[in-house]
Structures are given as C-alpha cells and as structure tokens.
Amino acid sequence: MNRNLLLLIPLALLVVGVLVANLVVDRPDRKPDTEAVILDQPRLIPDMILLDHHGTAWSPGRLQGQWSLVFFGFTHCPDICPETMVQMNQVHRLVEEKGRVMPPSVIFVTVDPARDSHERLADYVPYFNRHFLGLTGGEEAILSLAASMGVPVSIPDVAPDEDYEVDHGASISLVDPEGHIRAFFTPPHRVESIADDYEAIVRYLRKR
Amino acid sequence: MPRLLSALCILCLSLPLMAEPPVTAEKPWVREAPPGTSVTAAYLMLHNRGEEAVALTAVSADEFARAELHETVHDEGEARMRRIDTLTIPPGEKVALEPGGKHLMLHDARGELRDGDWVTLTLRFDNEQLLQIAAPVRKRTGRASDENSGHDGGHQ
C-alpha cells in the first residue's frame, strides 16, 4: 500500500464522522427566527372534558403523542372560519410534501356550542379533511380551553335560532407531544410561513 | 333629411343609456357551503372604469334569502365580521372581495348549491347602475383535488 493512500484513510474517516454527527444531531441549536411567537416556557392546558365530532369524550390528554395545531371558529361563519380550515389543509399538505417533520394533527374547536353539536361538526370538519378533529362541549369548558390558548371569545346571550355571530380570537396554538402549548401563530395567517415556522419550531424543540 | 335628423336625435337621446356602465366584475365565485351550513360568501373583483368614484350600496342573490356586504377585520388578534353599508371604488381602481377580507355574505340558501352550480348576484351602485353577475359555486377545501382543477380563490 502506498503512503498517499494511507494518508487518505484518516481524512475519509473524518468526513464520514462529520456526516454521521450531522445526521444524529438534526436539530438547530438556536431559537429559529419565526413569525410565530415561541413561548419561553411550555404552557399547561387545564383539564376539562369536551366532545369530539365522533361523539366521544375528549380531554387534553388526547393531545399527547403528536404535534397539534388548535384553533377556534364556528360553522355559521361564512368567510374566515372555512378559510382557516382551507389554510390548515394547505399547511398540512406543504409539511407532508417537504417530508422533514411529521405533519400536525389539526383540531377545530367551536365557540358556538349552542348551534354546533358534535353531529354538525361531523358534517363540517371532515368536509375539509377527514383526519381533522372537531370539538364541542359545554360553554365553560370551551372558554377555559380558549383562555389557556390566549383566545378571547364573546358568545352573545341570544337564542340559538337567532342570527348571530361569535367574535373570537383567530390565533392558532401549537401543542407539543406532551400536551403543552409551545407557540402561537397570529393572524393574518399565511400558509407558507405557518408551514415553515411549524417545521422550524418542531425541529428546534423536539429533543429539548 | 328630416328622417335622418330624427334618427340622429334618437341616437343622441339614447347615448347615455348605451354608454358602457362604469363598474365591471371580474372572477366572481361563491364558496360552496360546507355540509349542514346555510351561510356562505361570494367573492369577486370590482373594477371602476369610469371617471368618478362609485359606491356599492346594496347586494342581493337570487338563490339566497339575504345578502350583505361584510368585512372580516383583525383587531388585536381577534377576527371580527363587520357589516359595511357602502363600498366606494375610486375611479380607475379595483377593489377585491376575497377570502379573509371583504366579501358578500349570503344567508339562507333556498336550495342546496354544489360545486358547478351558479348564483345570480345583483349589485346596486349609487350611480343607479345595476350589475348582474353569474357566479359559479366552487368547492374550496384546500385539498389538492380542488386546487388542481383550475379553481382560483384569489388566494396566494
């Protein structure tokens, strides 16, 4: 074996070592620069019981095991609520196409439980994506979930058969696989930036 | 000669009626209402080709009990729907009614409307112009299947 080849071996080992190290530590060390607001401390969600669109009891423990995007709306809303569903679908697809992190589970919580029964949500939510989940329940439980996510909700005091709207916060919360709130996406929402921020935040936080 | 004169007179008198109406609509569409819902929204671009500002003052849709001009506004992170009484289009300019912004809110569909159906919108302006528009109903879910079929919601 000649001397030149012997010199090349440690060099090759070094290159392989660096490559392997990069694969193992696929995690940026610095907080990513995002439009989304990343919380300094994970925020807990208080316990409560809601009803999912299948009619099954739901509690925040169900958020564990995957990253989730949670937002609020109501089905009698003609523009911004269906449009946010559309955007969540587009975000989901963008993340899936890039294939760098798992796409989020998407949860739509009604702020109009008087009109949005779980049956109604079962018609509405899967129309956009059959993997998305709709939640309804008692007003108090919904308001407590909304408050933990910094989402103001003003449910008007009117009969359900009247024509009314429910003004509500439009932020989207990012919940980690431990069930803790880690970041907020604030409106106006842009699909590309939510998808990019989601990926950056998940990669930054996943081993922390 | 008198016949020619009278013909000219008639032509002159009818000129204002024949003039191009200043406001035109582009790319109108109606969001297919998700199952179980009876409210939805119509979107379009209004273009004022005239020399003076024109204001949209009333809207209606044949297929719906009621139509209103609305705007989704973001106020400190809160999304709020606001009714607008009039919408002014400056001369030579376009105003977009698009998802997440200004839109025509349509209440109580008289029948089920699905992707491919049509809605007749009537817009009344303060210059007495009545604009009638045929707007297609489009399914918009954000799935690849409805975006690849040439649907353009005026979205990014």
Topology:
The complex is a heterodimer of chains A (208) and B (156).
Chain A: H1 3-24, E1 37-43, E2 50-52, E3 57-58, E4 68-73, H2 80-98, E5 105-110, H3 118-128, E6 133-136, H4 139-148, E7 153-154, E8 167-169, E9 172-175, E10 181-185, H5 191-205
Parallel strand pairs in A: 4-5, 5-6
Antiparallel strand pairs in A: 1-10, 2-3, 2-6, 4-9, 7-8, 9-10
Helix pairs in contact in A: 2-5
Chain B: H1 2-18, E1 23-31, E2 40-48, E3 54-61, E4 64-75, E5 78-83, E6 87-89, E7 94-97, E8 102-109, E9 118-125, E10 130-138, H2 144-147
Parallel strand pairs in B: 1-10
Antiparallel strand pairs in B: 1-2, 2-7, 2-8, 3-6, 3-9, 4-5, 4-8, 9-10
Describe the fold and architecture.
The complex is a heterodimer of chains A (208) and B (156). Chain A is α+β, with helices and mostly antiparallel strands and 208 residues long. Chain A has five helices and ten strands. An eight-stranded mixed beta sheet of chain A has the order 1-10-9-4-5-6-2-3, sandwiched between helices. Chain A has a two-stranded antiparallel ribbon with strand order 7-8. In chain A, helix 3 (118-128) links the parallel strand 5 and strand 6 (133-136). The termini of chain A are far apart. The mean pLDDT of chain A is 91. In chain B, strands 1, 2, 3, 4, 5, 6, 7, 8, 9 and 10 form a ten-stranded mixed beta sheet that branches. With 156 residues, chain B is mostly beta strands. Chain B is 13% helix and 49% strand. Chain B is globular, with a radius of gyration of 19 Å. Chain B has a single domain, classed as Immunoglobulin-like. The A-B interface holds A 75-80, 82-83, 85-90, 93, 120, 123-124, 127-129, 152, 163, 165, 167-171, 186-192 and B 31, 34-37, 39-41, 70, 72, 74, 77-81, 99-100, 103, 105-107, 140-144, 153, 155-156.
